[in-house]
Amino acid sequence: MTPALHLLQYLPPLSTETTPKHGLRPLRRHSFSYIKACSNTRNGRTKGPDDYHATLKALNSKGRFPRKSLGQHYMLNSEVNEQLASAAAVGEGDLVLEIGPGTGSLTNVLINAGAYVLAIEKDPHMAALVSERFADTERLKVINEDFLKCHIRSHVLLALESAKSLQVVSNLPFNISTDVVKQLLPMGDIFSEVVLLLQEEAALRLVESSLRTPEYRPINIFVNFYSDPEVKFKVPRTNFFPQPNVDAAVVTFRLKRTKDYPSVTSTKSFFSMVVQFLT
Question: Is 229 helix (H, G, I), strand (E, B) or coil?
């Protein structure tokens, strides 16, 4: 059996559920807005949309299969990526940090929107794949490192001089989402906004839990201390390969500057107290 046919066995089935155009739907139990897909790419930058076949071809080119240990779930619907970029209002000349670019499906949309992309990829095979895919553009720099262990400030500050805006836009590996949020949100001095595609459960837990619910945790205080979060829209699980057991959702975190943080004597002491009382 060829590698392509082998991978085709694991493609998620097409959903029989009725959903709005583009396969996205708002979360029903909340009044989150449904964001329209972006228009066609411009300025001749497009390399074509990513779909089932493009994703399989890219993975086969490196003999790769999604690794559970890395939380890899590849996006099969380019229009979801367009809506993710639209939620971040990515435009010409923006600098975007992308964590875990994978096959480059979101990277493609960001570059087409006019952004310069700094991509951090832990998997050396996927780092090579995305570098090769965009070898003819000067709008991408790929760093083969573990985001949670790299010196992100130094990487970003080196690239910041020529950019008019700096934000994070990522379809995150599901298994590192909370750790990434903890690392990014206190960086309001560098990033203006963080837009992430997360597991729906994680998104609601981070954003929607209130003090009156048993789900309220120190992470909720942390998120609201450093940002103004909002869940934008839901992404059905059928848009991913391999198909996860849960749906996803896009969340925007508008980061606060230091002067806008709640007034506390010491952030370290404050969060130590929070952990003590809520755990």
Answer: strand
Is 73 annotated as contributing to ligand binding?
yes
92 is in an annotated binding site: no
Question: How far is Cα 135 from Cα 274, in angstroms, rounded to an integer?
Answer: 47
Listed residue (223, 219, 248) closest to 233, CA to CA: 248
Domains of the chain: 64-278 (3.40.50.150)
The pTM of the full predicted model, rounded to 2 decimals, is 0.78
What tokens does 72 get? 């890899």
Do the Cβ atoms of 3 and 60 come closer than 8 Å?
A: yes
Q: CB of 251 within 8 A of CB of 196? A: yes
Residue 228 annotated in ligand binding: no
Over its length of 279 residues, how does the chain's per-residue pLDDT go in tens digits?
A: 443 333 333 333 333 333 344 445 444 333 333 333 333 334 435 455 666 567 767 766 666 666 666 667 788 888 999 999 999 999 999 999 999 998 899 999 999 999 999 999 998 988 999 999 999 999 999 999 999 999 998 888 877 766 667 999 999 888 899 999 999 999 999 999 999 999 999 898 888 766 556 667 888 889 999 999 999 999 999 999 888 899 999 999 999 999 999 998 888 888 888 887 766
Was 75 annotated as part of a binding site?
A: yes
- Starting at the edge strand found earlier in the chain, the sheet holding 166-171 runs 140-143, 116-120, 95-99, 166-171, 193-199, 248-255, 227-235
Binding site annotation covers 60? no
- Does residue 121 have a known ligand-binding role? yes
